[in-house]
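ok so I'm stuck.
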Amino acid sequence: MAVRTVTLTIQMAGGTQIENVTKSVAAAVAEAKLHAGIVTVFVKHTTASVMIIEDEPGIRADTHTFWDRLIPVDPRWRHNTVNPGEDNGHSHLRGQLQGPSVTIPFTAGSLLLGTWQQIVLVDFDTRARTRELVLQVLGE
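replied:
not stuck anymore, here's the structure
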């Protein structure tokens, strides 16, 4: 079984920004020149997550509202109170709940996503950051 690793660097603004990375992941799978296998998309940060969603404006807005309601911004989060100058306790909690990765099967060099499924990076942090995604393509 062959393994190919690709790193993507993405500038993000924070504030639950959603960035569609489906085309970049599909390109990495195609460039790996493997027929069938899986690709794992992993974000190397604790205040960001990778998800599969139907990427349209309504879902983007609902996703933002969902996270604001589920884990609201609150200066009383312990992360904020025990670490002077920190204001992103909610960002870490959102990242913990959503998780850092997704795995997608592929065949004939193409992702096996459903009709409306898109791979997105979500940045929960409170300020702009450069995010690093690791794509690991395993297959034959």
